[in-house]
Amino acid sequence: MQSPNSRYMLAEQMTPIVASYPYLIASTPSQIPVAEFARVFTPVANLTTLNVNIRTAVQADIALMFNYTSNHWSLDLGYDFWFVVAKK
Fold it and tell me: Domain segments of the chain: what residues?
């Protein structure tokens, strides 16, 4: 189950603080941010999606059967065909 707006989650890039907040250093040194938003962001789906090479194989199993029934006797005759076609 998805949470509300989960498909719109964004990842943001952060950079270390250089000197963007000189007034904070002087007033409250214990509350200086350690990183700031670098104005780069992208949806999380773009980061977590990978290109995948897919190969499929075809497999078939075919059975043929003939049945003859007469006076409580039954005769069955059949054959089973099985093959695989692999894609490389």
Answer: 6-48, 57-86
